[in-house]
Amino acid sequence: MSVSSRQKIHPAWIAAAIAFLTLAAAAGFRAAPSVLLVPLEDAFGWSRATISLAISVNVLIYGFFSPFAAALMERFGIKKVIMIALTVVGSGAFGTIFMNSPWQLVALWGVVVGTGTGSMALVFAASIANRWFIEKRGVVLGALTAAGATGQLVFLPGLSWLATHHGWKSVSVTIACAAWVMVPIIAILLKEGPSKLGMTPYGAPKNYVEPIQIKRNAAKEAISALREASKLRDFWYLSGSFFVCGLSTSGLVGTHFIAAAHDHGMAEVTAAGLLAVVGVFDVIGTMASGWLTDKVDPRKLLFFYYLVRGLSLFILPAILFQTVHPSTLVFVIFYGLDWVATVPPTVVLCRTILGPERATVVYGWVFASHQIGGSIAALGAALLRVKFGNYSAAFYISGLFCIISSYVVLQIGKGKEIKVK
Predict the structure, then answer these.
(1) How many domains does the chain have?
(2) 408 in Cβ contact with 342 (< 8 Å)
(3) Distance between CA 421 and CA 135 in Å, rounded?
């Protein structure tokens, strides 16, 4: 390859590739609890609700730390925050091999790992897209969001196999090592932003002026952004709809799909494989959503996504889990295409709330609502399963909320034209 051809590759794409790898790894870390529900239940005799409490705390802290992580990235730089986060995740995961009581699971996997993964949440994707890209921002957001599905695809079947054949501790050790290996990769390859290289973002016009980087106290900045955004009705529409997004994805299906399939006699490795296939179609759906977000009113996209998701969840309880029926594959395909397709249009809409200077921090708070929904579903679905003996009620309730959200998102910026580029 000649020097001139190498120079045509904008560093923005290298930053996006590193972010993709990091987010894929983080998704694998987050997916691990779903394959540990049954093994931990068998190993310690803990109830599924007790184990789900740790997952619920993990999801909640993961979300609530996101806006502060976004502010910390603005204050101290993306690289430092991500390196520390990976170190924390590895330490928390490794520490679980020494636990012998439920509170230790909550402390290590819930609090420690939740804090670490929260620092690598989708605010990281938003930070990379907002700093490095003017053109193709929707496509990049779609790709980085799809990284979560890729991580799920790569990690879930392997982690499930490890748990089945080598015990649950092998899963913790694998995650710890993977997190620690990522630290030097980030240190060497990730750059803070185009201005550090004397460049402008990809697709920036000639008169481009870089937004002022906020250097105030990270906690105060996060709270200040919430205070200002909370005065706007559109912020609550976005937060409410994203609450339902978390409720219906990571909290319910992401956490309990394998356990629900196991209840009906399906092998855990098979169920994990199906959830990984959801990840395959999620990559396709999210990439397409990113591309569409650059061209179509994001409110219309969100309406379609939530409506389809709600209908899919109403179908799921009727599917037989014993074997992989065609109806199961229909759910996997449609649900996968819609899994996190909501993210690119939601991020774009967040930029209209407080402007580009605070868009990432505002999105961090909207994402926190996503994780509150996920946390409630992670624990609530387990409690419903204990009460009724199955997960049907949880799926129906989640589906109903999705259909309601499909109406709510149409009220965002009602009467206003939102530019899609």
Answers:
(1) 1
(2) no
(3) 8
The answer to whether the beta carbons of residues 325 and 317 sit under 8 Å apart is no
| Residue 67 C-beta-side C-alpha neighbours within 13 Å | 27
Can you give the pLDDT at residue 152?
A: 67
Query: Quick one: which of 170, 26, 46, 53 has its CA closest to 108?
Result: 53
What torsion do the CA atoms of 283, 285, 286, 290 make, to the nearest 10 degrees? 130
Segment among 84-93, 321-330, 408-417 with least mean pLDDT: 321-330
> In which domain, by residue range, is 149 found?
10-196+215-411
The answer to whether 22 and 120 have CB atoms below 8 angstroms apart is yes
Q: Is residue 420 assigned to a domain?
A: no
Q: What is the end-to-end Cα distance of the chain in Å, rounded?
A: 33
- Residue 2: pLDDT band (50, 70, 90) is very low
Question: Which pLDDT tens digit goes with each residue over 364-392?
Answer: 788 888 888 988 998 899 899 888 888 88
Residue whose C-alpha is closest to residue 304's, from 400, 406, 408, 397: 406
What per-residue confidence (pLDDT) applies to 149?
65
Task: Indicate if the pLDDT at residue 3 is higher than 50.
Answer: no
Distance between CA atoms of residues 187 and 299, nearest Å: 38
The enclosing domain of 87 has a CATH number of: 1.20.1250.20
Q: Which amino acid is at 188?
A: I
